[in-house]
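for the writeup, i need someone to sanity check this before i put it in the appendix. the sequnce is what the collaborator sent (i think, or maybe the updated version? ugh). structure was predicted straight from it, no edits. if anything looks off just tell me and ill rerun, i have time this weekend
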Amino acid sequence: MSYAIVVALTGGIGGTSSNREFSVLALFFTEVLFLSALQGASAGHRIVGIRIVRFSDKGPITPKQALIRTVLLCLVVTAITYDDDGRGVHERLSNTVLIRR
């Protein structure tokens, strides 16, 4: 979704933008951070019916947890590295987990 929005705003797929990659990542970071902190799910999470909760008590995540999770998610390596429980490093370090709605 972030890519589609940036492409639409920068002149289409054939358009030229030297900062397109950075713009996509910045929009993705902003969307995930704010929607996770405020609603407990990004737009993509809502589409597939999952949400982010605290691992310890399944309550809503704090803005600090959303920030930690989003920063680590954007690093990609922490998002594709899993533990035995199937939680990514970004989830473990932010004390969060994804659950079905």
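The radius of gyration is 15 Å. The chain has one domain: 29-100.
thx in advance!!
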